[in-house]
Structure formats: structure tokens, C-alpha cells
Amino acid sequence: MAENGTSKRPRDDGGADATQKKLKLGQDLLPKPEGGVNYVEIDGKTCTHAVALPDGTPDASPLPPSARPGPPAKEFPFTLDPFQRTAINCLEAGASVLVAAHTSAGKTVIAQYACAMGLRDNQRVIYTSPLKALSNQKYREFQEEFQDVGLMTGDVTIRPEASCLVMTTEILRSMLYNGSETVREAALVVYDEIHYLRDKERGVVWEESIVLMPKSVRFAFLSATIPNAMEFAEWIAKTHRSACHVVYTDYRPTPLQHFMFPSGGDGLYLIVDERSTFREDNFQKAIAALTSSAADGGGKKGKKGTVNGKKSEESDIFKLVKMIMQRNFDPVIVFSFSKKECEALALQMAPLDLNDESEHKLVEGVFWNAVDSLSEDDRRLPQVGALLPMLKRGVGVHHSGLLPILKEVIEILFQENLIKVLFATETFSTGLNMPAKTVVFTNARKFDGGGFRWLTSGEYIQMSGRAGRRGLDDRGIVMLMIDTRMEPAIAKSMVQGAPDTLHSEFHLSYAMLLNLLLSETADPESLLRASFRQFQVERSLPALTQRIAQLEAERDATEIEDEEQVSEYAELQQQEAESRSLIRSMVMQPRHALPFLQPGRLARVLTSTESVPSGPDHTDTTHEESSQPSTSGRKSQESVWTAVINFERQGKADAGEGEAISGSKKAARYIVDVLANCAEDTLPGRGPKRRPRLVSAREPGSAAVVPVQLQELDCLSSVRIYIPKDLRPPDARQMALKAVAEVQRRYPDGVPLLSPEEDMSVKDSAFRKAQRKLESMESLLEKHPMAQAPDLEARLALWDQKQAVVAQVKAAKREAKAAASLILQQELKARRRVLRRLGYVDEEGVVTLKGRVAATIQSSDELVLTELIFNSGFKELSVHQAVGLMACLVWREKSDSGTRVSAELEGPVGALREAAKRVAKVAAESKMTVDVEEYVSSFRTDLCDVLAAWSRGSKFAEIMKMTDVFEGSLVRAVRRVEEVLRQATAGAKVMGELELAALFEDGITRIKRDIVFAASLYL
């Protein structure tokens, strides 16, 4: 229901349209909310609305609130969209609201209206964001419009008494722990970018602050599109005992077109049009062009090189940017997942000048106005000097390694359309609304710490959402550069998939526990019970209970004739298989097996561990014959015959490869190359490296040389075949494979094997014992009453199925038990044990002086720093040593500059490591999962001497020569050290150690200077 529009209830029959809208709200994951889903329509545009009601309010209206009578708190110079109008009506009705909409849809309108409401009603409004930079930008934006605005980010505090306060979420949490009067006065809190709640490191801050917020506060949550918006709203309704409305829109003001650019190609292929239709024909053409380019010698995505021996004229990215400029598709954001690659790609634009003379002067004016506040030395920094010529040509770079002031200059120039091409990392896609006409992805894959993977649909949606400027472009353009084959399903999932689900990353920390124990209004158990994570776990309980009942019914319905005897026979088979496995591991030890690994020796290679052995001689079967897995616990190995080519000892350089092959941390010491028949569909292509699926030599496939670990050999034959010296030609490999198949044909009862005792000299007592056990198992199986049953295999298969259901019942019951109990309960007990043993709380659980000091530390390891403070770790230190030591507590990234420290810091660093070792040992003894050595080594010393030099007054250019980290990363490290010093100062004052507090304050004074703490351009 809304002005100038209509509100419709979904049809009771749940028609297709209603179903589609429900899916957009995540209703497929949730029970239907009280009152269902409403559709709000204004001027032909629609949004969906639902409301989550707390228990005990069945009479509340499920419809969107009507507009408030009288003049609005703020007039806008444009017609509001349905989702904006509906969200504003919810706020005016005194309810909380979650607004989920695409990037650039106009969510900021709700934040602006919330501030205007607070000023009109003489109520305090808090706006909180995840980033200091975003808080600075919003402060500037709101201050220009409302004047009565303050800012609190830790670095800067401006007008803390203002009616509208902009702050980071960490500051808001600290104020809640400290019982701040400012928060108690708040009537409305705006959480921008609430989907940050799923951030692994910092998401917990959002949950803490929401749970700890006074129950009288109402919320406006602004988020990107999330499929489980209703689930989040129901958590808010339950936690704060008030209605929370969900206003959700998939409406994109500017529709997007998605193109694909194959590496080395010359054209773009439209794969998704503005109506969101996937064009599979064009996708296949793009993949064909990529394959053709690869066959011709590969593309030129990166820097200039040679193709087929000829010097390439232009790289792919240069060609693409040039085409974008020619077609007036600028401004363009080019996303790369590496800071170094961003800069390298930007340098390739050197031949392009995208700005005219007047724009050159404007860029120069903005740039020098910004950097004029810097000292002369800082203005001569290489990064500052290198940037201006590039910016004048309309090319920019934006990543976390840039100096903050330069990042802000680039943001301002981009907003003023003075940068036509911006090379940026993923972080540019979050925060302030800075759309472009075109977005380019330099790769469809990214490195996530463990390896390369395809982009998720959520990541793609977030970044591609920057394309298309509302009111300026009739469509946004997204271009995806690919250099690796991808399946249509992957492309569809990425480009048209659902956004990432909002899930909880709640976790415990010692500072959290100590602050909660000090709080009069909360305790750790109540915070855990009220967390979104606990809510999500508990929501799964009814479904789990139903699943358990279904599984138990399925289990009880499965009747097996003579089930007890079938079970006994199956268990004997399992013991037999285990004995065979033990014998094989003994036989395949290097000292026994290596002398027989001559070229041409037939060796049987294990291919799976899923089926039951058919007999004592392991009759050869194909992978297809063993494709039905058994989860009953009866295990054996399927295997295929291959021919040995050679073997090599696995050195340190190859350890990773050996582990990749086996999937085990205990890699074999020897790798055996075997000639095997591989299934065609699993042969490695241009995709990620993988092990092909081995099949019998008598099945269709392709002959290939495959590396396997020695332990993967099942047994060795006494037969050898002739192997050609050159196996590179496919025909040579195929002929050798035919010889393997011929051997199998000639020995229908089984290929003759080497005798472990007589031929391979395996004679130890353990082997003979295992042999006797195997013979005993075989005898018992042969004499078992079930051995002669004509339908034995059918009964065993049925028993396997039933055991699989039994295992599922056990797993579901464990899951249900965990869901019914408090999350993280065991970890909470363990952490409390640590705090008690280290003296942070006493036997009654009361926080000691030591604990009160640790509670002030939020930005580093609170226990290690507190241990140092209480063990006089800073007492004899100079201010430079203290600052250098603090660098160990904040720096976690690896760099190539080395970890050695100067002589003056060796002692303090040693004391820190001793404190860390003491904390880790107590944690391990208290049943916390912690690796002592790994924990101690996590305190890196890369920047100790750098920070010490900075505190002595060294110029920024001088300390940059001491390390290989990016300028922006170094600035962040210094700022974090300043933050920890501030918190340590507060801790020292709690102790009454004024001399120590003075040391830390002196450190703050010495490092808080020059370009590192240059004022934000937004302030």
C-alpha cells in the first residue's frame, strides 16, 4: 500500500508470479511469514514487501504502512522508487526495516531520510558503516545537507554531541560496551552495507552491536540483494521484540548487458542481454574463439610479448580499452584481483591520452590542491610523482596499496568524470556509490589463498553492479575476459546466479568475554543465545527433526532376510579387505617394490575405495563397474592394470605434487609413472590440473602416462611387456596399451603376480601374521552359512543401503543435538578456563585488574599485549623500541623483506614470543584448538625496524626503502599501531601506571605525523 500506487496480496493458489516473488525474498529457504508477501507498485515499478513479527503479535498488520500524514521530513528532487517510498513509510511508522537492493539502486535515500527524521523529531540518529573512508565520505555528504552532523572513527572525532552521528561499527560496539549515554539516546540506527555481517574477520562486530543495542532503538539496514533477507528480519524481530519490515527489489535502474571477450580474440560476444536472457549460441562461439586462439599460440592478455614468434602489437586489455573509448562506453572500471597487476595494466595505457587540454588542467588543479597539505618531502614520494601524468591522461589505479590521500584524489576525479579508465581491485566495488558505464573483469578466476577458483555469483553481482549510471546510461555494459575454458553451467551460475546468502560469522574473543563480564546489562551466554548464528542453527531444528523421522521410517521399512547373518558376513568382508590393505602396504614398501619397477612391468593401480572385493584375486574391473559407492563401512579397492614406465624419488621440490596426487599430507617418497587407459572425459585440458580417471585397458579411452604414488600400486605382475623408447606419439602409447590388454586376454583367470615372499623377499613376522589373518577371514567367509545363498549380492546391497541410512540417522541426530544446545558452548568454557588460569578472572568469574586492562585492547592480541604489560615487557624500553614491538602485534601479512630485527629489538621481540608461547600453552592445556609454534610465529617482525625508524623521525621515503610492502599497506600498519597504542594507554591508566601511559602517549605523538596521518579530503 503506497501513495499513487497499489498493494496486492499474492494469490492463494500461489501462481507462477507469486512463486517468483517469494523466491526473490528467499521464501524457498524459510517458512511463509505471517501475512505473506506484498507487492508495491508505483508508476509501473514494483518492489516486494514482507514483515517479520515477534511472537505474540498475531494481530499486527502484515501490509506495508501507509504514508505519514503531513509534510515529509525531507523532499527529494525526483520521484521516489517503490522500495524507497515503502521503506520510508516503515521508518515513519516507527518500525525497523531491511532494504535489500542492487548497487546504484538508491539506498542512500533511506539513510538521508532517517537523518532528516531525527532532526525533525529532535531525536538522535546514528549512521554506521564498515569502513573509515566510507564514514568520512558520508559525513561530508550529510554535513553539507544537514549541518548538525558529527563524526567518530577512532582517528577523528568531530562534534560528538550532534543529532546525527556518523561512525564506524567498531566505535559503536565500544560505546555499547562502555554504556555510552550517546547510544542510549539514539532512536534510530542506520547500518549501511549490513551484508558485511558475513565477513569472516569483522562480521561479529555487527552482531555484537545489534544484540547489545537498547530495545527501544529502531533500525534501518541497507544491504545488497540477499536471498535470505526474511530470515535476517525474523532474527531482528525476535531479538528486539518489534516488527522488522523487509523491502526487497530486484529492479535495476539501468539494465545490464554481459559480454565475453576470449583471450587473444578480436571481438565481444553478448552472452546475457538486457532482459537477462542467456545466449548460449554466443557463449559457444566465444569458447570456440578461445580454443582457436589457444591453438594459434595463445592470447596476449597481459604485457606485450610474442605470438608465433612475432612481436605482438597490442595486449588484449589495450585493445579492449581502445574499443571502449571509440564506442563512447567510458568511464570504465577494470577489475583485477592483484594490486601489482592493476598497476601493470595501467602502465600499458601509456599510449592513450583520454582527456583534453582543459581536463588536463582540471586534474592538475585537483591533484595539487589535495597534496599541497603534504610536506615537500612527501610530495616527492615516487608514488605521488608517478600518479599525476597517468591521471592527466584519464587513467587511474585504485587498490589498498595506494596512499590514502591518493585513493581519495582518484575517487574525486572519477566522480567528476576526469578519469575515464580506472584499474581497481575488488574492494572498489564496496562503499561509496561510484558507478561507471562499463565494467571489465580481467579474469573469471581469482586466488583465494589455497588456489584459483571461479568467481562466485555474489562476487560477480557486486562488481558488475557498478556498471550503468542512473539517468545517464540506457544500459550498463559488463565485459568478462576469459583465458580458460568454462562450462555453460559455470557461466550461467556466475552471471545469472543468486547473490550470496547472508550467514553469520559469529565467533568468540577474549576481549568480548571480558567486556561482557564487566557489563551490567549482558553476559556471554545471553549474547551467544541472541546471536544470528544461534538463530540460524535453531531454525534448522524442525527440519532436522522431520528428517530424522523420515530416515528412521526408511530404515525400519528396509527388511532383509536373515539380517543378522548378512550383517555378520558383511563385517567379515570388511575385515578381509582391511587385511588385504595391510598386506599391500607392506609389500609396496620401497625396499621391496623398487627393484621390480622396470619399464614394461605390469602393475595394478588402485582407482577407488568404494566397492566390496569380488574375490581373493581382486578381479580387474573398470571404474564404471564400481561407481555405486557403499557407505556401510565395507571397503576395498578397485584397480586397473597398467604398465610401469619409470619411477623417481620425490624430493622437497616435488612434495606438493605428491600431496596433490594422494590428497594426503603424508606424501609418498616415490612417484611411479605408469602407462594407463584414461577416460576421455577426464583428460586434462586447459582447465585446472587434475588426475584423469583410469579405466581398464580393454575399455574405450586414451593411452596416457600418469604419475601415481607408490602406495597406490595394488600389486605387481611377473609379466613384462615391451615399451617403446619414445612414448610421445599417441600411436606408440596406444600400441603399448594394446599389449596390456592382450596379457589380460591370455590370462582369463588372472594375470600372474609376483610372490611377496619368494620373489619380493617380504619375510617379516608382521607380514606373516597379516597373511594368517587374511587366510582365516577367507576361511570364515567360505564356511559362512550365507556364502552359498543364491541372492547374497542382492542382500548385501540392501544391507549397504540400510547401513547408509543408519549413518545418516546418526549424523542427523548429532546435528539436531548441536542445534538444540548453545553454540560455541565448549569453546566458551575453554576460553573462560584460559582467562582463569592466566589470572584475568578469579575463581568466582569476577574480572581482575589484569582482565580490565585486557578488555581495553580491541585491535590486537589482547592477552599477549596484556601479558607483556604485566610482566614489565615495556618497562625498560625506549619509545622507539615500544613502537617497533607494537608492529609485531598488528602485522600479519608475509613480505619478502625478511623477518630479522636489529639488535635493540631482539630482546623485546624475544619477550613477546615468550609471552605468546605461555598464552598458547595455557590455551592448548585448556582444550582450545591451537598450534603453539604456529601461534608464536604469527607475530611477524617484518615491520619492527620500519616502525622504530618512523618513530625516530625518519622520512616516509626512507622507511619505504626498508621494506617491500606497498605504501598504502605501510600506512595502514602505522595507523593500526597508533590505534593499539591508544588502547594500551587506556589500559595503563586503568592500572594506574602513569609512567607507562606516558610512554605509549609519547609513541602516539612521534608516529602521528606527515603523510601517514594526512587529513581526509572528505573532512
UniProtKB/TrEMBL annotation:
**What is the protein named?**
G11714 protein
Give the signal peptide as a residue range, or say none if absent: none
Originating organism: Coccomyxa viridis
What domain of life does the UniProt record list for this protein's source?
Answer: Eukaryota
- List residues of the Helicase C-terminal domain: 316-517
Which PROSITE patterns does this entry report, sorted A to Z? HELICASE_ATP_BIND_1, HELICASE_CTER
Q: Where is the composition biased (Pro residues)?
A: 61-74
Q: Which Gene3D superfamilies match?
A: 1.10.3380.30, 2.40.30.300, P-loop containing nucleotide triphosphate hydrolases (3.40.50.300)
Q: Which is a Pfam family this sequence falls into?
A: DEAD
Biased region (Polar residues) positions are 627-639
The UniProt entry, under InterPro entries, shows: Beta-barrel_MTR4 (IPR025696), DEAD/DEAH_box_helicase_dom (IPR011545), Helicase_ATP-bd (IPR014001), Helicase_C-like (IPR001650), MTR4-like_stalk (IPR048392), P-loop_NTPase (IPR027417), RNA-DNA_Helicase (IPR050699), SKI2-like (IPR016438)
Sections of the chain in a coiled coil: 541-568
Basic and acidic residues: bias regions: 617-626
Ordered alphabetically, the record's keywords are: ATP-binding, Coiled coil, Helicase, Hydrolase, Nucleotide-binding
Annotated segments matching region Disordered = 1-30, 53-74, 607-639
Keyword Coiled coil (UniProt): yes
Q: Read off the SUPFAM superfamilies from this record.
A: P-loop containing nucleoside triphosphate hydrolases (SSF52540)
Is Hydrolase set as a keyword in this record? Answer: yes
Cite the Helicase ATP-binding domain residue spans from the record. 88-244
